[in-house]
Write a structure and sequence with these properties.
The complex is a heterotrimer of chains A (269), B (310) and C (390).
Chain A lengths: L12 H15 L4 H7 L13 H31 L7 H13 L2 H12 L3 H25 L3 H9 L4 H34 L9 H9 L3 H29 L1 H5 L12 H5 L2
Helix pairs in contact in A: 1-10, 3-6, 3-8, 4-6, 5-6, 6-8, 7-8, 8-10, 9-10
Chain B lengths: L1 E10 L2 E11 L4 E5 L6 H8 L7 E6 L2 E2 L5 H6 L1 E5 L10 H5 L1 H5 L4 H14 L4 H4 L9 H13 L5 E5 L7 H18 L2 E6 L2 H7 L2 E6 L2 E6 L1 H6 L4 H7 L4 H8 L17 E2 L4 H10 L4 E5 L5 E6 H4 L5
Chain C lengths: L1 H5 L5 H16 L3 E4 L7 E3 L13 H9 L7 H32 L5 E4 L1 H21 L3 H21 L6 H8 L1 H35 L1 H16 L2 H18 L1 H5 L7 H25 L3 H9 L4 H35 L7 H10 L3 H33 L1
Antiparallel strand pairs in C: 1-2, 1-3
Helix pairs in contact in C: 2-5, 3-4, 4-5, 4-6, 5-6, 7-16, 8-9, 8-12, 8-14, 8-15, 9-12, 12-14, 13-14, 14-15, 14-16, 15-16
Classes of the chains: A mainly alpha (269), B alpha/beta (310), C mainly alpha (390).
């Protein structure tokens, strides 16, 4: 009944990447001597225009806010078109999502600027808009994956619509839904880094400043932190998804080996 | 034709086939029967080396099968399975032509062979050759599957529950078809099934397996009349042995001189079991027997059906 | 809600789109006009440009207003498609002509560009067309062809010169060389990525399909790479590649360095491996096991089974992996401009850094168009291939 991973906590990659991320966030400035040795030609190899903790905070806030909007709006839209009253709009929404996902996220970000202007607001709006797409898709797919007999049984037992939604559909759709949110958040972390080109302070700022000023040290400082942030978030989502499927592992017939639900088979989809 | 000498096969701890010795004769229709897990399917797949045997020897045409090149061995044997496994991206004609093409037959020969086989299996060549598998019904797909297995005129036809997934009507039509093909071609056929009625209907010889061992090996009549053990009796179905025996023979084997009766007649090629059913349904003691043209050629009497051991 | 269905309104989707269009036409500027490219423009409303023949554009709008109340019928959807085509190209023609009129009275530095209203009206027109296409259920191939036909008049206008007074096209005229160079560089990087992707990704997919134990580790690593934001990966590759180039002159001669096309292609290939390998493995996994067993049973050699049975049956899914890879590479190439690889991203970022919004559009629109075109092309190819098998 206990969650399968982590088997040994000290081998847990989430723990180590998380600790490394925190250490670099708060201790980057102490690495100044190291960067001096690595890049002797640079006079100032440490990005000082903003502190790294503040950049991380700004980055996380932008991604968090835009993802929150994406989940609320995208989840709502996905929910709406899977109800009887909104079914007409489903194929249209799916078309929009399919076409929208071929748009490069950078292009969405760039196009938002002429329409909305420079700064943090357009970045959040663009990120939220792009982040909507995987959320909508996974909401529809997740709700659709709930077996019809289960829904019929729920109706037959006298559950109300809301009860069916909250107690049956959403819990069963959760793993798929989480996969969509994960995709959305990971893309947004990357796009938010590029948003520093439209005048937003994020972890992308040292990279952009470094690229335009030929300061490789800045680039590495920013890139390390953004990369780690993305990896930590991804691992955390993976953990969350395993937890959301506990019932699936627990209800498995005892005589069948657990390996049939190994992550490898899930990933190869 | 095919000989098993003390063959064993294990999957991990599970013994699938245990010390099996068996000799399958030329032109014989052998049915391997048993419950699931009895080793019947493994036995069949060892013949064409889809499953390698652990010990003992399996001979094909007098030679240990491991002495053949795997592909050559398989090309000399037809193979049809329950899930059919037609290639969805190829037309019916291309599917049937698989082995002839592997054997590099000339084009014209392949074309005429495909046509011949489609006709043999009751599929109109003009209508079916260029269709794709997904455009066919389940029964038609299995007909193509059998045609594909027969394509290169194999020396033996291996069939693994070929009719298991079909509806009863289609299944009996295909059973009749395969019986006819066996008669016409005189080919050795090895068929795996768990359906005793199918075995009794088709087999010259039934090999009943249980837990990887042969529990009885004999003609359908022997299986019914002299079951080797309780498990055989149970498998056959104790309460229906008499009726099943009647199913083995045809009406003409018990025919008497014609009578003048008003009752509806029965075909001379019907089984005695069907005759009994017809007698009961028409409340008669005897019925006229008809030939293929509907002419009365004799009669069948209920008393003659009771002596099944004859 | 049942009342809706049974009542007067036969297509709620189209009605909602129309109302949204009416609302944005009333509230948002159709065009913006500025005396030069650095100043924020003044809005020009939809109603203000409807004089003269411009009013004709209301005809398709009227048709689209009536259509929601008509019974579902292929004819209705056909007419809606036609109206959408007229509406989309009409809107463009109107904007182009208005820009020409404004250019006559103003200095050559003046800029007329699309306002929020134009973008939204255009988008809504597209959605209406997409809805009608969906209703018609034409199958993937014909859907793409009809969508192209709806788009064709607009593309025709674009090349006819009628729109040249619009600011985006003015920017284009000013930098035709830069644009053409960006286009060829962009395509060059994408194709240069696809070659190693196919050479490494497909075998990787095959191996992970055959050796199940490899699946976990290989896909974990590829997934990790995919997780790292593009700008970070470019940045992280920059230092080691630059160091390699300085210390191994031979590599430098081959064009390896921290910035430019080579690191871009390396990074893009790394990203492409996951969708490519996954598409290949998934394609092989959905080949019916019975077909493979039958092939073995009939005496096909492993090589014959692979090329004659597995590959053709895996191809549609494999192609969809290639489609995802290509679309992703087109988008990521834009980011690669930040490490000096060129392409449309260079135009886009130049626009962003100098606050020249038309320049941003000149970089962004072609990238979006390329991505959509590649997506449609691969889908078309996949459907042609899939038609036989399924």
């Amino acid at each position: 009944m206990n969650p399968a991973p982590p088997r040994r906590w000290w081998l847990d990659p989430l723990l180590w990447t998380g600790l490394l991320f925190l250490a670099l966030t708060f201790g980057m400035s102490r690495l100044q001597p190291l960067f001096h040795t690595l890049f002797p030609e640079q006079e100032r190899p440490m990005y000082l225009q903003a502190t790294f903790p503040s950049l991380v905070l700004a980055h996380v806030l932008i991604v968090g806010l835009s993802s929150l909007i994406a989940v609320v709006v995208g989840g709502g839209a996905g929910l709406l078109v899977t109800r009887d009253s909104g079914r007409d709009f489903r194929s249209l929404l799916e078309t929009v999502v399919a076409i929208g996902q071929t748009f490069p996220p950078v292009a969405v970000l760039a196009v938002a600027v002429p329409l909305i202007g420079f700064g943090t607001t357009p970045a959040v709006i663009a990120l939220a808009l792009y982040g909507l797409l995987p959320v909508v898709q996974s909401t529809i797919a997740g709700l659709e994956s709930v077996p019809q007999p289960v829904l019929q049984a729920a109706r037959g037992l006298g559950l109300s619509r809301w009860q069916i939604l909250w107690q049956v559909e959403l819990p069963l759709a959760l793993p798929v839904l989480l996969a969509g949110i994960r995709t959305s958040v990971i893309i947004n972390i990357g796009t938010a880094a590029i948003a520093s080109t439209v005048g937003t302070q994020t972890l992308g700022s040292p990279i952009i400043v470094g690229l335009s000023g030929f300061n490789t040290a800045y680039i590495i400082e920013g890139a390390l932190l953004v990369g780690l942030l993305a990896v930590v978030t991804d691992l955390a989502f993976e953990r969350l998804m395993i937890h959301s499927q506990q019932w699936r592992l627990a209800t498995m017939p005892r005589n069948r080996p657990i390996t049939s639900a190994s992550p490898a088979s899930a990933q190869s989809r | 034709m095919i000989e098993f000498e003390r063959v064993c096969k294990r999957f991990g701890d599970f013994v699938a086939v245990d010390d099996l010795s068996l000799r399958l004769a030329d032109g014989e229709f052998t049915v391997l029967i048993g419950q699931s897990g009895s080793g019947k399917s493994t036995t069949l797949k060892m013949i064409n080396r889809l499953v390698p045997h652990d010990s003992g020897r399996i001979l094909f045409a007098g030679k240990e099968i491991n002495g053949f090149r795997e592909e050559d061995l398989r090309r000399r044997m037809g193979y049809a399975i329950q899930s059919i496994g037609l290639f969805p991206h190829w037309t019916v004609a291309r599917n049937i032509a698989t082995v002839p093409a592997l054997l590099k037959w000339p084009k014209a020969r392949i074309t005429s062979r495909v046509e011949e086989l489609l006709q043999l299996l009751g599929l109109d060549p003009a209508g079916f050759a260029h269709r794709y598998p997904h455009q066919l019904s389940g029964g038609q797909q299995q007909r193509v599957g059998v045609a594909r297995a027969l394509a290169a005129d194999p020396e033996v036809l291996l069939m693994d529950e070929p009719f298991g997934a079909l509806d009863p009507v289609t299944r009996s039509a295909l059973q009749a078809e395969i019986a006819r093909i066996h008669q016409v071609s005189g080919k050795a056929i090895v068929l795996v099934t768990h359906d005793i009625d199918e075995a009794l209907l088709l087999a010259d010889r039934i090999v009943m397996l249980d837990q990887g061992r042969v529990v009885q090996d004999g003609t359908p009549r022997q299986i019914l009349l002299e079951p080797a053990s309780d498990s055989v009796t149970r498998f056959v179905g104790r309460s229906e042995v008499g009726l099943k025996l009647l199913g083995l023979d045809q009406v003409h084997s018990r025919m008497r001189a014609p009578i003048s009766a008003s009752a509806e007649g029965i075909s001379r090629s019907a089984t005695l079991r069907e005759a009994l059913s017809a007698l009961i349904a028409s409340h008669a003691e005897q019925l006229p027997v008809l030939d293929e043209h509907g002419q009365t050629v004799g009669s069948i009497h209920v008393a003659d059906l009771l002596d099944v051991t004859r | 809600m049942q009342v809706w269905q049974a009542g007067l309104i036969k297509n709620r989707v189209l009605l909602v789109l129309w109302l949204a269009g009416a609302l944005s036409a009333a509230l948002l500027p159709l065009l913006t006009h500025a005396p030069n490219r650095l100043v924020t423009g003044k809005g020009i409303s939809f109603a203000a440009v409807l004089s003269g023949w411009h009013g004709l554009v209301l005809i398709p709008a009227l048709v689209l207003a009536i259509a929601p109340f008509c019974r579902k019928h292929p004819l209705r959807d056909g007419i809606v498609l036609l109206a959408c085509a007229c509406w989309l190209s009409g809107l463009l023609a109107l904007a182009g002509h208005e820009a020409q009129q404004l250019a006559l009275t103003d200095s050559s530095y003046s800029r007329t560009s699309f306002g929020g209203g134009a973008w939204i009206l255009w988008g809504l027109g597209w959605l209406a067309a997409a809805d009608a296409l969906g209703q018609l259920k034409l199958g993937p191939r014909n859907t793409v062809l009809v969508a192209l036909a709806v788009l064709a008049p607009g593309i025709g206008l674009l090349f006819s010169g009628q729109l040249s007074a619009l600011s985006v096209l003015k920017e284009y005229a000013n930098r035709r060389d830069v644009f053409d160079a960006a286009l060829s560089r962009h395509l060059e990087i994408v194709s240069a990525t696809l070659v190693p992707t196919l050479l490494i990704g497909v075998p990787l997919g095959v191996i992970t399909f055959r050796r199940t134990w490899l699946r976990g580790p290989v896909f974990s690593v590829l997934n990790l790479i995919q997780t790292i934001p593009s700008i970070a990966l470019f940045g992280l590759l920059l230092a080691p590649l630059a160091a390699l180039a300085t210390h191994v002159p031979l590599l430098a001669q081959w064009g390896i360095s921290g910035i430019g096309v080579t690191p871009a292609v390396i990074a893009l290939t790394l990203y492409s491996l996951l969708p490519m390998a996954r598409g290949t493995a998934a394609g092989l996994a959905q080949v019916p096991a019975a077909a493979v067993e039958a092939a073995r049973g009939m005496g096909m050699s492993p090589r014959q089974i692979f090329w004659q049975v597995e590959v053709p049956l895996a191809l549609p899914v494999l192609l969809s992996g290639l489609r995802i890879t290509t679309v992703q590479a087109i988008g990521l190439t834009t980011v690669a401009a930040l490490i000096g690889a060129g392409g449309f991203g260079a135009i886009m970022f130049q626009g962003l850094l100098s606050s020249a919004l038309d320049l941003v559009l000149l970089g962004a629109i072609p990238v979006i168009a390329l991505a959509i075109a590649a997506d449609a092309l691969f889908k078309l190819l996949g459907s042609v291939l899939g038609e036989r098998g399924q």
